Amino acid sequence: MRQILHEWKILDENLPETIFVRVYEERMDLLSAVIIGPAETPYHDGLFFFDIKFQNDYPVSPPKVHFRSGGYYLNPNLYAGGKVCLSLLNTWHGKNSERWNPKMSTILQVLVSIQGLVLNGKPYFNEPNILHKAFMKTEEEKSLSYNRKAFIQSCKLMMVFVRHPPKHFEEFVTQHFRERTSHPCCMQGLYERRNNWFFS
Q: Does residue 85 have an active-site annotation?
């Protein structure tokens, strides 16, 4: 419990403005998080929800993280079934230095890594067997095509959240999209104007 309270403190003092976390005093082993998709990515201004559970031996073992996908596949690291593949969670290939360290790793690092490393501008290259081909023109074309599909899937997921906002985030979801657009599908026009490279 002391370690979890320490995690709460770290989150309270260091969360970036584009990541929000809800804690549950009656269930300290659970967290809910929402990450706002970064600009210049297929996920721009989208809302991506994650459920986090501290395991009984935490911090020896990393937390369990579940992505609320709505059944949509929109990233090589985020499965339609909810699995999150990330070195820091020991669910993805990576060097020892990138894996969970009980003495140093935190929930904050997990969330920031998902936002920066997973929800990036070229998610197609997240696949380890494709990364080394990034310089090839054919792979860049595939990356562009992947971005288009990822954006469409993300837009469909946002439609789900607008119609059925996750519990405890109802007001947040409504306010988020009200400030940006009257309807999630309008995000496409916004994205096209701001990020022409995406559809070129």
A: yes
The DSSP call for residue 115 is I
SS3 150: helix
Give this prediction's pTM: 0.88
Paired strand residues for 83: 66
Give the active site residue among 85, 155, 185, 186: 85
CA–CA separation, 117 vs 96, rounded Å? 17
Tokens 């721009």 found at: 44
The tokens for 121 are: 């501008």
Architecture of domain 2-199: Roll (3.10)
Cβ–Cβ under 8 Å, residues 71 and 164: no
**Nearest by Cα to 48 from 148, 160, 141, 125:** 160
Q: What is the tens place of the pLDDT at every residue in 116-152?
A: 999 999 999 998 777 556 567 788 899 999 999 999 9
Residues in CB range of 170: below 8 A, 6 or more apart: none
What are the extents of the domains in the chain? Answer: 2-199
Question: What's the token pair of residue 10?
Answer: 């770290």
Peptide bond into 59 cis (omega under 30): yes
Q: Where is average pLDDT lowest: 132-141, 162-171, 190-199?
A: 190-199
**What are the φ/ψ torsions at residue 183 (nearest 5 degrees)?**
-155, 140
